[in-house]
Design a protein that fits this description.
8 helices
Length: 343
């Protein structure tokens, strides 16, 4: 993209230069030749590029070379001071004014960008700044709610507009020079004035108040239906202060000392069978251990007597041989039928 070349006179707050910067190509367009011949009262030779450049520079550098870019219909006072009437024509005559936005040419480029640049006149800039301060700022301030920094924000908005309107430069195609008239004055053609109007009105920014602050509301957690109304929810979740220490299983003292006995197990099994086993006295102190088997149905127990079988301690130790039988280690094979009938 070619660089945007503008003279120093196009900068903000810069005064108008004595001459306009005009750059023409090596070949002059026919429409430019016809336009220069039309506006010149005195016939001047236009046979070369330097002659066209000299004629156009002198015409645009004249103090009377003022262009009307657009016209704005603006209110004369804030909304609260406007006249109210049933006839809209009367309201328009008394409440609105027509502001002509004027400018002068600061740059003509027919080589790189084929454009012409306009800068607003000091009178137009002053009129727009006055309208922004006395009417626009008053309306936007009245239409927004108040906050602590409202006046400061309005003042800052006005200062930004002053900078923007002084920097405003309108650029368009060089064909706009077809609207050139005598003494260098002119106006934009082909609907270009609407484009300038939209660009200027875009500099009138609205006042944006700060968003409302969001306040965090801390809500108490709901109580359960079984909890009392005045119970503290958080106090119920605390752990108990005293927790019993773990106890080893071997340190537990039995609840009934009578259930234990010091009788030798070898002598007990040697002197009695399975049917002769009885609990030691005193029996009343014995407590039945807790069992859940009584809660379920079970088949009745068989009450048939259990035959008394010899225990290992009653058998004599002898080496294993062919005489070992199913009845015991000391019984021969020929007594198998006897033991089978008893079982």
């Amino acid at each position: 993209m070619p660089p945007q070349l503008l003279p120093a006179s196009a900068a903000a707050f810069a005064p108008r230069a004595n001459t306009v910067n005009v750059v023409l190509s090596s070949k002059v367009e026919p429409w430019l030749t016809q336009t220069l011949k039309r506006i010149n009262r005195i016939k001047r030779p236009l046979n070369s590029v330097p002659q066209h450049q000299r004629c156009l520079t002198e015409t645009l550098s004249s103090s009377t070379a003022i262009w009307t870019l657009t016209s704005l219909m603006l209110p004369k006072a804030p909304d609260s001071e406007l006249r109210k009437d049933s006839n809209p024509l009367i309201e328009a005559l008394f409440n609105y004014q027509l502001l002509h936005v004027e400018a002068y040419i600061v740059h003509v480029d027919m080589v790189l960008r084929n454009e012409v640049a306009f800068k607003l006149t000091p009178d137009s800039i002053e009129s727009l700044i006055e309208y922004h301060k006395d009417i626009h700022c008053v309306d936007i301030s009245a239409n927004t709610y108040s906050w602590s920094e409202k006046e400061m924000q309005v003042k800052k908005l006005h200062e930004e507009f002053i900078q923007a309107i002084n920097k405003f430069v309108y650029r368009t195609h060089v064909s706009a020079l077809e609207g050139l008239e005598e003494d260098g004055a002119g106006e934009l053609l082909c609907g270009k004035s609407d484009e300038v109007k939209n660009n200027i009105m875009g500099l009138f920014l609205p006042l944006l108040p700060p968003p409302p602050r969001i306040v965090d509301v801390v809500r108490q957690p709901p109580l359960l239906p079984s909890s009392p109304a005045n119970a503290n929810w958080w106090s119920q979740s605390t752990l108990p202060s005293s927790v019993p220490a773990p106890v080893d299983s071997w340190r537990v003292i039995p609840s009934s000392p009578s259930t234990t006995s010091s009788v030798d197990s070898n002598s007990l099994w040697a002197s009695m069978g399975l049917t002769d086993i009885q609990l030691p006295s005193p029996t009343p102190s014995y407590s039945q251990p807790y069992s859940t088997s009584a809660m379920f149905y079970s088949s009745p127990q068989v009450s048939a007597p259990i035959p008394s079988l010899p225990l290992p301690s009653m058998l004599a130790q002898q080496p294993c041989g062919i005489s070992v039988g199913y009845g015991g280690f000391n019984q021969p094979w020929d007594r198998y039928q006897e033991y089978a009938t008893t079982m």
